[in-house]
Amino acid sequence: MDQNGLYNIPLRVKATDKTPSFEYIPKQGTFNIKGVSIPVDAKAFYNPIFDWLSGFVETQDPNSYFIINISLDFFSPSSIMHLIKIFKKLERFDKATINWYYEDAELLEAGEELSTILHIKFNMIKY
User: Fold this and answer.
1) What residues contact 28, with CB distance under 8 A and at least 6 apart?
2) Cβ pair 79, 38 in contact under 8 A
3) What range does the domain containing 96 cover?
């Protein structure tokens, strides 16, 4: 399988009680991140995802359209730093959009703060 073919396969990382699920659905151009993110070692958890994403980004047209759906109930400061690193990789796509799902004012504030740091369109969506 060539490098491009690798990224046309769905990516799924199952959630645990301390880590979120990650899902990439190639036919929809959608990334889903859901759950809690309080891993004991955030670097060990997020680095393989970042490495995969780094390869993915290199094979994609910068005009590609991506939606990143984020629904985190809770996250640690170290997790958010790794998520920012991941999101920054997607800034090269003009048509990337982050849908930030929030339940309370604290999560809304976190999403709004991220939207000022990143150069990606953000939608704040209450659930």
Assistant:
1) 67
2) yes
3) 3-126
pLDDT tens figures, 5-56: 667 788 899 999 999 999 999 889 899 999 999 999 999 999 999 999 989 8
Q: What is the pLDDT of residues 65-113, one digit of tens each?
A: 899 999 999 999 999 999 999 999 999 998 999 999 999 999 999 999 9
In this structure, what CATH number is given to the domain that contains residue 96? 3.30.750
- Total domains in the chain come to 1
> Sign of torsion, CA 38 32 70 62?
positive
CB neighbour list of residue 64: distance below 8 Å, 6 or more residues apart? 29, 93, 95
- Rounded distance, CA 79 to CA 87, Å? 12
Q: For 19, phi and psi rounded to 5 degrees?
A: -135, 150
What whole-number distance in Å separates Cα of residue 110 and Cα of residue 80? 9
